[in-house]
Amino acid sequence: MAVDLRALPEPLPHPSSPGGGRWLLIILTGVIAGGLLVTLFWPGSGRGASLWFWCCAVVFPLMAGLLAYALRRQVAEGRMDYVEGWNQARDERRLALVEQGQQHLLLIAAACCSAAGNNKLAQALRSGIVPLQPCYVPSHGATLRLSQLQPAVASLSADEYAERLSGYLREVLLGLGAAWHTCAQHITHVRIRHNGVLADEQVLAVWRAVAGDQHRAGQTVFASQADDGLVWLDDWLDAPERAELLLSLEFNGYREPEDGYAESVSAVLLGRPDCANRQKLSPLAAVHRPVRASSPAESFEDALRWGGLLDTEDTYFFWQSQVSDEVAEEMARVMSQSAYPPSHERSLNLDSVLGRSGCAVGNLALVVAGEQAMADREAQLILLEDVTPQWCVVRPVGAPVHRDVTET
Length: 408
Description:
Transmembrane segments: 23-45, 51-71
Distance between the termini: 22 Å
Oligomer: single chain
Number of domains: 2
Keywords: Membrane, Transmembrane, Transmembrane helix
């Protein structure tokens, strides 16, 4: 569930206190007016010699004015106490929401098989490797831009596709290294997202055959076709009984080649900070709460706030994936007008070098951002589009997070 600071009501304005000078003038005016009326309507001729006359002309109007001033001041103080208490409760609620929004997960390990290689994907892509290359496909009778896993194939039967997937899954688990062997028996949730070439039951059978006895039986969740990039992390962060360790598998493989798309099989092992500390794991990076870009300017601000970059001078590297031209143009305008504009030299569009990630867009973004955050000790800002456009900040482990306790 998205954390929305803007759903909070506005702070109540502080009421003005009764001005002493103004009330002094009101009291004097009341005393003079009361004295004139008493003098005018006082019966008989003994006005000045009567104590009762002076009480009615001066004392009673003065007491009435002072009493009115005291009552007005009491009302103002009561209102002030209410406003201060209400605003304090609102500020405490806002602080609690900020702390909730700035919760993060740890990227404990990540691995992928792609046309750019299986290791140091971010470094390879930033160094100029472009696996998305034109390739003539006889079955299509056309040249397509493909980013294919090796060995490349033109078409596959379902059984051949399952066998190929099994091989890449084994490579990915090996790529997770010691983290997989340490955590395999403690992973209770496995999330799988695939492009539907195989049925869920077939994919599950492949996964169980690959994982074998290393991974104890746990809950396997298949992401639906409507699953949206990294937004599932938002729900997991707020789940009251969420798993401490979760393995996310995403694969986008050809059965028939698709122009502009990248084949990949990826795995990211995520965990809660307390679990990582307890298991004495060495995570790659911290993954902060993703934000749907439903409102461009506000969502960009929220992403920076949740990632602890708002109101700081920290720099970031900017990754884009599957972002439509219209969304990219709007987000570029928002970022350029903000205090945190992107640097052209410090940004990379995965679509132009690796290809469109398809249903693996979330995992691949975490893989490259996590690798780069650890290598450069610098924050990474992700903008990707799946069902909806969304932001996510990935930071080096141990980097200080600005808490943003003030209103913006």
